[in-house]
Design goal:
alpha+beta; 6-stranded antiparallel β-sheet; 13 strands; about 15% strand; 5-stranded antiparallel β-sheet
Length: about 550
Amino acid sequence: MVKQWFKSGSPWIWMTGGAVSISLISVLGLLAMIAWKGLSFFWPSQVVQFELDGSVTKQTVIGEVYDREMVPKSRLEAMGVDLSGFEKEQLERLLIKTGNREYVDLDFRWVLETDIKSKTTPADLAVFERSKNGNFYGYIETVIKDGQVITDNKKQVLEELVDRAVDLNDQAADLQDGDIGHINYALERLRLQEKSYLLDDALTDERVAELAQQRAALRADYLVLEKQLFALRNQAKRDKVTVKDMRGESVTIPLYQVLDFWLPNDMGFFAKLGHYFVQLGKFISDDPREANTEGGVFPAIFGTVFMVMLMAVIVTPFGVVAAIYLHEYAAKNAVTKMIRIAVINLAGVPSIVYGVFGLGFFVYVLGGSLDQLFYPEAAPSPVFGTPGVMWSALTLAILTLPVVIVSTEEGLSRIPSTVRHGSLALGATQAETLWRIIVPMASPAIMTGLILAVARAAGEVAPLMLVGVVKMAPTLPLDGNFPYFHLDRKFMHLGFHIYDVGFQSPNVEAARPLVYATAFLLVSVIITLNITAIGIRNHLREKYRSLEH
């Protein structure tokens, strides 16, 4: 029976199914772990007030419990901690996020359980999210509205004033990045245009007068907008709040620095749930702050998607044309076979090598040549002769080109030769046969290659570090200034953001949950791009299924 069972092939079916199940469980488990550690960061945690009375410290500590760990008693005694009278072999210590960064040495500290005299969660403990110096924890004492001290309904009034300050700050940022940014961009264009005229010996008196007139008009508009900007900033600085911190001292916080505040110990489940989604939305839509350890990751999301889409636009036509030539036109000889072997081998080249090639050829050779030919007036500042999003897309297009070529060739080889012969027999040319029949039938395979290319390109980091990605990008590659798409600009990327926050952050403890949250977001972006491409592939497969019969 056992011998017949092995001969039937059933064991191999069970082994294959088991391997697939284990792989699926591993992947889902990894994603669940990343999602839990990352997304739980945005849930409003309780703020605890600890009264410490140990051998080392006697003070009040207010903060959030970030982590817990058990430490052997022998290890603590070796560190000089007096634990006489304690019989436990392991003692618990808590990692507390105390915030109030400008008034304490570290905004994270370890507290040993033996030092804790008492711990409470007062309902009136507030958390202030600020634009700099991180969170602030304390008790709200007074709210100062336009110089007047508010004593009644302090929480409601403070909510209104914080919303007002945030709205004014947003208006100021939109004005600075929008209209004022347009004027600065136009002034820089006029400077380069004047320099170009000077290099071409075409700077006539009429052109000088015209440029001066345009410059004067732009500066007049700039002065008007500058007054509006300063007025918005002064209005945002009107109100303040006084908070009693864990040192027992009153600290005055200008509300223009406050992004949000909440009382986590006084919040119910649904209030916490609403706050959770608000914080998650901020993480997706806001710019990063405090060396990427706070704020959002929108520039990194935009840069990742923009670069991947640009790469897809570049790699698809080149990969498809190369595959069509190799399969439909190239002779079946040793040279063609060597080309195919070279294409397959290119897929195994380390990605950092592509980055070095992109830096040496695209940036320095091609970009430098473009600057000499078309942008001499910008010298010595490079335009395309420096890493940017276009060179990153081209580098990743070369990196993923073998995947698209191999996948497209496999799709072309599955199309029966009788289809080609039938089309030619009906009077169609070879080009018409390719364009109207062969390529549409091979489009699902082309989309498969594109899916694989996008999945690999979206997660690559090493080559991008050489050809365009940066820690903080001042502007996006897309804005309202002509020509709108600025392919010469540097950009942010989710993969590099993970590396930077995880390994280059000045505040490791604060950055840890952001690493998981950004990693989960990167996986989500890749899955979204892949699902979109798979949907298009399935649509094409159904559309051209009739051609196969």
